[in-house]
Design a protein that fits this description.
With 351 residues, this protein is of the alpha+beta class. The protein has two domains: 185 residues, no CATH class; 94 residues, Pdz3 Domain (Roll), CATH 2.30.42.10. Helix content is 50%, strand content 23%. The protein contains eight helices and ten strands. The strands form four sheets. It has a four-stranded antiparallel sheet, with helices on one face. A hairpin with a 2-residue loop joins strand 4 and strand 5. Helix 1 packs antiparallel against helix 2, helix 2 packs across helix 4 and helix 2 packs antiparallel against helix 7. It is globular and about 75 Å long.
C-alpha cells in the first residue's frame, strides 16, 4: 500500500509543479501548447481551446509545453516574447507550488494538535549545572548564530558544536540577551531502569495550538526543511557527503514504504508518510531553483544574463547558445540520476 502511495505522491508532486507553471503562464497570457502528466507515449488526450491535456504512459515526470519556450517564435503570446518579469514568474511558479504543497501537508498534520512545545525554558532537572546561567522563562532564539525554531534545533546545533562552548541568544523578560562562549554540554542523568542518559537538563514549555500558531509552526517547519536541504548541499559540495549518500526516486519509494510499515498503526504510518512527502515537496522546491542548467533556477540565471547582455550591447544573444547550455546540463543531470538510481538499487539489494 505504501509503495503505491509513494508512486502516487510523486505523481502529485510533479502535477502540482507543472500546474504552477501552467496557471501562471495562462495568467500572463502565454500560449500553452500541451499540459502533460507522465512521460512517453500518450494514453489519453483532450484538446482544449488551445491546449492539449494529456496523460502519458510512464508515471514519472510531466511537462507544461509553452509556445516559444525551447525555440524562438514570432507569436506575440509566445514565452520568448514576454517580459523578463513574466518569464521569471512562470519559471519560479513550479517551485512555489511544491513549497505550498509541503506547507499544506504539514498544516493538515498539525491541525489536530492541542499544543506545541516551545523553546522557552519551563523547568530544570534537579542539580542542573546550567540553572542560573539560564533561567526559567528564557526563550532560546539562536545557537551559534543559527535561529532556533524548535527544541530539535536547539539539540542539533548544541550537539554539533565541537568544544561545547556556545554563543546563545535568548529573550528574557522581553529583552534580547546574548550569552557568548557559554559552556553547555549534555550531562548524565539517571533513568527509571537504573542507567544513565545524557541530557541538557532542561524542560521546555508548551503553548496552546491556536489557529495562528498552527499556521506559524507549519510554515517554520517548512523553513526548517529548507535549512536541512541547504545543510545537505553544503556537506555534498564540501566533501563531507558523497553521491553515494544521495537518494533518488527508487530510494525514496523504499524509505516511504519503510516509514509507513514500521509505524505501530496505519494512521500513524500515514501521518509519517505525509510528513516525509511534505519534506520531499520542499526539497524539490529548493533543488529545482538551484542555478544549474536544465533546472528552472538555471533558466532564471540564463534569462537574467541574456537580459543584462541585451541591455549592455543592444543585441539579443543567440538563443541557440542557451539551448546548448541547458542541453548539456540535462545530459549531466540524467547521468547523475542514473548513478543515483544504481546506488539506490544496489543499497536495497545488499542490505
Amino acid at each position: 500500500m505504501y509503495i503505491l502511495l509513494a508512486i502516487l505522491a510523486f505523481g502529485v508532486l510533479v502535477f502540482v509543479h507543472e500546474l504552477g507553471h501552467f496557471l501562471v503562464a495562462k495568467a500572463c497570457g502565454v500560449k500553452v501548447v500541451e499540459f502533460a502528466l507522465g512521460m512517453g507515449p500518450r494514453i489519453l488526450k483532450k484538446q482544449g481551446k488551445e491546449t492539449v491535456y494529456s496523460l502519458r504512459m510512464l508515471p514519472v515526470g510531466g511537462f507544461c509545453a509553452m509556445e516559444g519556450e525551447d525555440e524562438a517564435s514570432e507569436d506575440p503570446r509566445a514565452f520568448n516574447n514576454q517580459s523578463v518579469l513574466k518569464r521569471i514568474l512562470i519559471l519560479v511558479a513550479g517551485s512555489f507550488m511544491n513549497f505550498l504543497l509541503g506547507f499544506l501537508l504539514i498544516l493538515a498534520i498539525y491541525l489536530p494538535a492541542q499544543g506545541f512545545i516551545t523553546t522557552e525554558i519551563a523547568e530544570f532537572f534537579p542539580n542542573c549545572p546550567y540553572e542560573g546561567t539560564l533561567q526559567v522563562g528564557d526563550r532560546i532564539t539562536k545557537i551559534n548564530g543559527q535561529k532556533v525554531f524548535f527544541v530539535a534545533n536547539f539539540s542539533e546545533y548544541a550537539l554539533e558544536d565541537t568544544d561545547g562552548y556556545l554563543d546563545i541568544e535568548l529573550i528574557r523578560d522581553g529583552r534580547r540577551i546574548k550569552l557568548p562562549n557559554t559552556r553547555l554540554v549534555p550531562v548524565e542523568y539517571p533513568t527509571e531502569d537504573g542507567g544513565t542518559e545524557l541530557k541538557f537538563g532542561l524542560y521546555f514549555g508548551v503553548e496552546e495550538a491556536t489557529p495562528l500558531r498552527t499556521v506559524k509552526v507549519s510554515f517554520l517547519s517548512c523553513v526548517d526543511f529548507v535549512r536541512m536541504v541547504k545543510k545537505g548541499l553544503v556537506q555534498l559540495f564540501s566533501g563531507q557527503a558523497s553521491v553515494k549518500d544521495m537518494t533518488g526516486v527508487v530510494g525514496i519509494v523504499d524509505i516511504i514504504n519503510e516509514t509507513g510499515t514500521s509505524a505501530e498503526t496505519v494512521s500513524q504510518g500515514l501521518e509519517n508518510v505525509f510528513y516525509l512527502v511534505a519534506f520531499i515537496a520542499v526539497n524539490l522546491s529548493v533543488m529545482n531553483m538551484l542555478p544549474i542548467p536544465a533546472l528552472d533556477g538555471g533558466h532564471v540565471v540564463t534569462l537574467l544574463i541574456s537580459w543584462v547582455y541585451e541591455k549592455i550591447s543592444g543585441k539579443k544573444p543567440d538563443p541557440r547558445i542557451e539551448g546548448y547550455i541547458h542541453m548539456v546540463g540535462l545530459f549531466l543531470l540524467l547521468g547523475l540520476m542514473a548513478l543515483v538510481l544504481y546506488n539506490d538499487i544496489a543499497r536495497i539489494l545488499t542490505r
